[in-house]
Design brief:
The protein is mostly beta strands and about 130 residues long. It has a domain of about 90 residues: Nucleic acid-binding proteins (OB fold (Dihydrolipoamide Acetyltransferase, E2P), Beta Barrel). The strands form three sheets. The chain has a five-stranded antiparallel β-sheet. The chain has a two-stranded antiparallel sheet with strand order 5-6. It has a two-stranded antiparallel ribbon with strand order 8-9. It starts with about 25 loop residues before the first helix and ends in a 14-residue tail after the last strand.
Length: about 130
């Protein structure tokens, strides 16, 4: 099922905040069940096999989690601008196969009204693997 937050509004903007209804209330335990961590981007590769423009992104989540890879539709960023950048990842949502590629976590970002993504990041450097509270 498609994420309802990605439906176009009457003006054709796929992620217009005023057109996105709030999701149902959950308990703090639901949020605490998602393993959100800080990591550093170590590699960004082209992903021409993907249906929509995307990169294969490699992120170091520190000594406990290690290195994980994901597919991300963040091609508004140049690969060089992503290298060394700290990001937020959701690590325990399961592995997904995308055009034959094993995507191991979800890279988090805010959606623009036009459907683009602005990555979430800490506003000061943190150790790789730091949990998000």
């Amino acid at each position: 099922m498609a994420d309802p937050r990605h439906r176009p509004d009457p003006e054709g903007r796929p992620c217009a905040p005023e057109a996105v209804a709030p999701l149902p209330e959950v308990t703090p335990a639901h949020l605490a069940a998602v393993d959100l961590r800080i990591g550093t981007v170590t590699a960004v590769d082209a992903f021409p096999e993907a249906r929509d423009p995307a990169y294969k992104v490699t992120v170091d989540f520190g000594p406990v989690i290690g290195v994980r890879r994901t597919s991300a539709k963040i091609t508004a960023y140049a690969p060089d601008a992503l290298l060394g950048r700290q990001v937020v990842g959701a690590l325990n949502l399961g592995v997904r196969r995308i055009a034959g590629f094993k995507s191991e976590f979800l890279l988090l970002g805010g959606l623009t009204p036009q459907g683009g993504v602005h990555l979430l990041a800490p506003d000061a450097p943190l150790p790789d693997g730091a949990p998000v509270a």
